[in-house]
Write a structure and sequence with these properties.
Order of helices and strands: EHHEEEHEHEEHH
Largest sheet: 5 strands, mixed
Mean pLDDT: 97
Strand order of the largest sheet: 4-1-5-7-6
Shape: globular
Distance between the termini: 16 Å
Bound molecules: uracil
Number of strands: 7
CATH architecture of one domain: 3-Layer(aba) Sandwich
CATH superfamily of one domain: Uracil-DNA glycosylase-like domain
CATH topology of one domain: Uracil-DNA Glycosylase, subunit E
Radius of gyration: 15 Å
């Protein structure tokens, strides 16, 4: 599915997306991500934490940097490298893509590498939008994980501000 905005997460949660088959669906992080997409018109319907909840994305697609469930949410470099082929194929199949919102450093690095750029030239920074000639803009956000939200590394207003930047780049 082509779209102007792509959200790149880390990996499916064990009892959430890994079971429901839809990124972030049933995971703690989805309880912020999907209502945020609804708020900004990037989704229609109601998020019900299951794949058949009828929710539709609007000019937006969601994927993960890593496809397997990594122990302790820490994918190995080999897992990241192996899964990058999926991200490469997904981005190649999105000719209308203008803007990518990356959730966390691993998603950021996977995306920067997938775009054929040097990681050192585009460091991760929450709220930063990297504008790159001839490529989709890349906006960084801390991951909306349970840990980051509980410790207030990321708050809902911070997340919405990053999403607004990514939307502005579409
Ligand atoms: N679920 C996902 O699908 N991706 C994440 O990054 C976190 C939870």
């Amino acid at each position: 599915m082509d779209a102007r905005l792509l959200v790149v997460g880390l990996a499916p949660g064990l009892r959430g997306a890994n079971c429901t088959g839809r990124p972030f669906t049933g995971d703690y992080a989805g309880a912020l991500l999907y209502p945020s997409l609804l708020k900004y018109g990037l989704a229609r319907g109601t998020y019900g934490a299951e794949a058949n909840d009828g929710l539709d994305l609007v000019d937006c697609r969601i994927t993960n940097a890593v496809r397997c469930v990594p122990p302790a949410n820490k994918p190995t470099p080999q897992e990241q490298k192996t899964c990058r082929d999926f991200l490469v194929a997904e981005i190649a199949a999105m000719p209308r893509l203008r803007s990518i919102l990356v959730l966390g450093r691993i998603a950021h690095e996977a995306t920067i590498t997938t775009l054929g750029l040097r990681k050192a030239a585009y460091p991760f920074g929450h709220g930063t939008t990297h504008r790159i000639d001839g490529k989709p803009a890349v906006t960084d956000s801390y991951h909306c994980s349970r840990y980051n939200l509980n410790t207030k590394v990321l708050t809902e207003p911070m997340f919405h501000a990053a999403l607004e930047r990514a939307i502005a780049a579409t």
